[in-house]
Design brief:
CATH class of the domain at 5-91 in chain B: Alpha Beta
Oligomer: heterodimer
Number of helices of chain B: 2
Strand order of the largest sheet of chain A: 1-2-3
CATH superfamily of chain A: Cytochrome-c3 Hydrogenase, chain B
Largest interface: A-B, 35 and 30 residues
CATH topology of chain A: Cytochrome-c3 Hydrogenase, chain B
Shape of chain B: globular
Strand content of chain B: 25-35%
Largest sheet of chain B: 4 strands, mixed
Distance between the termini of chain B: 44 Å
Structural class of chain A: alpha+beta
CATH architecture of the domain at 5-91 in chain B: 2-Layer Sandwich
Radius of gyration of chain A: 20 Å
Distance between the termini of chain A: 40 Å
Order of helices and strands of chain A: EEEHHHHHEEHHHHHEEEHHH
Radius of gyration of chain B: 16 Å
CATH architecture of chain A: Orthogonal Bundle
Helix content of chain B: 10-25%
Structural class of chain B: alpha/beta
Strand order of the largest sheet of chain B: 1-4-3-2
Shape of chain A: globular
């Protein structure tokens, strides 16, 4: 049978960001897929060489709009480790609250996009209606909805009042209740299951050998979640990684939906246990030496390698984002699939091209 | 300081990576640093049960480094990235984008590398 090559992206209705794949087809079946990135590469790592290490907090936040807080959190944790800075306990809890709010809005964004990809518009709108509530909390606590800039080296820039903490607790409970009502549609609806069950199966062995991270790995039965290492205040909170075993698009949907409930629980625990006190400590001197910091973002593990030389400027700031680690899984999932499944398959890795093209 | 960091030579790289694969480590990524003295540091990061193990290989800028993508296929993107952004001479990659994964022909070559400015004396060759 003759083969043809179909370029998928960089501009495609299902992709919110430009990812480019070259799909080698035999009739409607994919036999090979080659990813091409670099369409919108921004060179932010180069930019960090000329910015001061304190200014880089704002640069790394702009790597990604969806997990901006967690980029800054990983970077700050790395610098704090390098400079042996102990941040106040209240700041550790505040970081958990904002980080989990980001995880909720990221997963809700993804669930909405997935519903949109398989043409379920009302489900898409219901999910995003809930996401708006999180964005409103961001605005009320930080003054902006997307890039909230509340992290600082040495703690946080802003505090959350007691009244606002109580309000957040009520809102996240509302979100959980609303999502519980939508849950049967994701889990039991015939058409939704038809588009997800058994589509894009990634075995546990393949996921591990291809370096999959986050919900991609956990949906294939790999119990791997960096929050269990106990950074920030996670070591004082009660949770278990959400793991599914089937490794298909349906399992990845279940992991992300259940992680929304998990984040609600973590936020409520953090609010119940947050201590009073300072939110930051003064920082003196410049970083010197090398460090690696890792944080569990909504899409999985992010790694920061930082090298300071005792000046205000870092010698090297290197970021490996979760999508960069999850792209190779597409090369395993796409061959053998039908062309019509490509949009859903690409979406199930929750690709963040903004992160990849940092 | 980075915990679990071992300095190895480029000749030891493939056997060391093979042994990581055998011990069921996950390949996390590789980080390249231009040290500014004509050398590149390449740090390979591996993970087992959320514990990192790192290997640093120090090579001259034009020196060849064997690809580990035949052992860990997922390293193919980061190896192409290091090749384009730093000029790291990685050989035998499973997929070689030929310098066009991130950069086009019009872009500055190796934009992450520290640029060497050589001032020649008048009359020198």
């Amino acid at each position: 049978m003759s083969r043809s090559v179909i370029p998928f992206g960089p501009q495609h209705p299902v992709l919110p960001e430009p990812l480019h794949l070259k799909l080698v087809m035999e009739d409607e079946k994919i036999v090979e897929a080659i990813p091409a990135i670099g369409y919108v590469h921004r060179g932010l790592e180069k930019l960090t060489e000329v910015k001061e290490y304190t200014q880089n907090v704002f640069v790394v936040e702009r790597i990604c709009g969806i997990c901006s807080f967690m980029h800054a959190m990983a970077y700050c944790q790395g610098i704090e480790s390098l400079m042996e800075i102990q941040i106040p306990d209240r700041a550790r809890y505040l970081r958990v609250i904002w980080a989990e709010l980001h995880r909720i809005h990221s997963h809700l964004l993804w669930l909405g996009l997935l519903a949109d990809a398989f043409g379920f518009e009302s489900l898409f709108m219901q999910v995003w209606r809930n996401r708006e509530k999180v964005m409103d909390i961001m605005e009320e606590t930080a003054g902006s909805r997307v890039i909230i800039s509340t992290n600082a080296i040495g703690g946080t820039r802003r505090d959350i009042s007691k009244d606002m903490l109580l309000k957040i607790r009520v809102i996240v409970d509302e979100i959980k209740e609303d999502m519980k009502q939508l849950e049967p549609v994701f889990f039991n609806d015939y058409t939704v299951k038809h588009r997800l069950v058994g589509v894009g199966v990634l075995t546990s062995e393949d996921a591990y050998s291809l370096g999959a991270v986050g919900p991609m790995a956990r949906a294939s039965g790999i119990s791997q979640d960096l929050r269990t290492t106990g950074y920030a205040a996670y070591g004082e909170l009660d949770f278990e990684p959400v793991v599914e075993k089937d490794g298909d698009s349906y399992a990845r949907t279940m992991v992300r939906l259940k992680e929304v409930y998990q984040s609600v629980s973590l936020i409520k625990q953090a609010i119940a246990n947050i201590p009073e006190g300072e939110i930051s400590v003064p920082v003196k001197g410049n970083p010197n030496g090398e460090v690696i910091a890792r944080v569990e973002q909504p899409r999985g593990e992010v790694l920061y390698y930082l090298k300071g030389n005792g000046t205000k400027n870092l010698e090297r700031l290197r970021v490996r984002t979760p999508t960069f680690a999850n792209i190779p899984t597409l090369l395993k999932m796409l061959p053998g699939s039908q062309l019509a499944d490509v949009p859903v398959l690409i979406l199930t890795i929750d690709p963040c091209i903004s992160c990849t093209e940092r | 300081m980075i915990e679990n960091l071992v300095e190895i030579s480029k000749e030891q790289l493939l056997s060391q990576v093979q042994s990581m694969k055998y011990d069921n480590y996950r390949f996390v990524t590789a980080s390249c640093v231009d040290t500014g003295d004509g050398y590149l540091d390449v740090i390979y990061h591996f993970d087992l049960d959320l514990e990192l193990k790192n290997f640093r290989v120090r090579v001259k800028k034009d020196e060849e480094v064997p690809s580990i993508s035949k052992i860990y296929f997922c390293s193919v993107l980061v190896e192409n990235e290091m090749k384009e952004l730093f000029g790291l001479n990685v050989t035998n990659m499973a997929i070689d984008y030929g310098g066009h994964m991130l950069l086009s022909d019009d872009d500055l070559a190796n934009p992450m590398a520290k640029q060497q400015i050589v001032i020649e004396k008048r009359g020198a060759k």
